[in-house]
Design a protein that fits this description.
Length: 317
């Protein structure tokens, strides 16, 4: 009995020694420098900096992309969006940075004005923008975010988008270069609330003679090219129309645009979500109620307040 215990103890001692040896070996072979240099390796003094360390190889793409994401109250979606985009775009040789255009004023959400503001704030350092919904994740690596030299490139084409399939659709994800966005005077500032601003932008592009191109011969379809992470039952879209909003927003706007978006940039926050660097711009939009009284519908001074069940795309624009 005693002999049995002795041999058992000896066995455990050997096992212990073996494990200790194994662990020391593992420690020995791992690289010494685990913390990498987080410094700006390319040494450029951009206003907003680069999203990641640029090696020589990625510097060869000379155009810089600003991903502009209009935003309000969608933190859960942002937590998914940011790391997804980083992983997705890592496979492409791009120099990009993500900007969250955070509307902090009390007015209704204005996606188009936020994009105008984002553009004005970054145009010094970036050559093209991606107007990007926060709830639409590209899933197919054939979707490229390259510099759209000849005209706007609509990544979320109606043939691929999970929901919108009409031929003039340019919402979701649209790449536009700096020259073209300036040429059409950006987007209209009249679209407070959800919808139609992208259709108006399509008319601007068309009138300027710019041809929108889209991904060709993509191997996936409407169900598996993008992932739509918006939970519609949880977050209701603001489809209210008040005053004469419905009439006005069906027409091409020749009054407002990039050259007269009225706002204050009240703060700039650099943050990192799961290793993805991004910049949040706190934007306070101003509303001229003599032009767009519908920037606040809930104030009961509106003569007509009509709720729309579903966005009706205007074909007449
Ligand atoms: C990086 O690029 C510069 C100039 O383009 C070149 O002179 C240098 O050799 C490159 N370094 C490496 C490690 O490739
Ligand atoms: C797409 O496929 C068609 C037919 O298969 C081909 O003619 C066309 O050149 C392709 N387009 C691109 C952009 O690869
Ligand atoms: C934008 O310009 C138009 C005239 O082109 C003017 O009617 C409008 O008040 C301006 N809007 C703002 C917000 O400055
Ligand atoms: C940005 O806006 C948020 C929400 O209004 C606020 O809590 C935060 O302090 C602002 N940050 C800066 C730097 O302005």
């Amino acid at each position: 009995m005693k002999v049995f215990w002795k041999s058992l103890r000896l066995k455990y001692i050997f096992i212990c020694i073996f494990i200790t040896f194994g662990i020391s070996c593992l420690i020995g072979i791992t690289p010494i420098s685990i913390d990498e240099c987080k410094c700006d390796a390319n040494g450029t003094s951009n206003h907003y900096g680069s999203h990641r360390i640029m090696n020589n190889k990625s510097r060869k793409s000379k155009h810089r992309l600003a991903i502009l994401v209009p935003f309000r109250d969608r933190f859960e979606e942002l937590l998914i969006f940011a790391p997804h985009m980083q992983k997705f775009l890592a496979k492409q040789d791009l120099d990009y940075h993500i900007f969250i255009l955070h509307q902090i004023d009390r007015y209704r959400f204005n996606r188009a004005s936020l994009i105008n503001v984002g553009f004005l704030e970054v145009k010094k350092d970036f050559d093209y923008i991606a107007m990007h919904d926060v709830d639409l994740l590209p899933m197919n690596n054939e979707l490229l975010y390259n510099y759209p030299e000849k005209g706007p490139f609509h990544v979320s084409s109606p043939e691929l988008h999970p929901r919108y399939h009409y031929p003039t659709f340019v919402g979701g994800i649209l790449l536009v270069n700096r020259g073209h966005f300036t040429l059409v005077n950006g987007m209209s500032n009249k679209y407070w609330g959800w919808g139609l601003e992208d259709d108006e932008f399509y008319v601007r592009l068309k009138e300027a003679g710019l041809k929108v191109t889209r991904p060709q011969n993509v191997s996936t379809g409407t169900q598996n090219t993008f992932k739509h992470i918006h939970d519609r039952s949880h977050r209701k879209r603001d489809m209210t129309k008040c005053f004469n909003q419905r009439e006005v927003t069906r027409k091409r706007d020749r009054q407002t645009g990039l050259n007269n978006v009225s706002y204050k940039l009240t703060g700039t926050i650099k943050m990192t979500i799961a290793d993805t660097a991004l910049t949040v711009l706190n934007i306070s939009l101003m509303c001229d109620k003599s032009i767009t009284p519908w920037c606040e519908c809930d104030k009961m001074d509106g003569p007509t307040e009509v709720k729309q069940k579903e966005r009706k795309r205007s074909e007449s624009m």
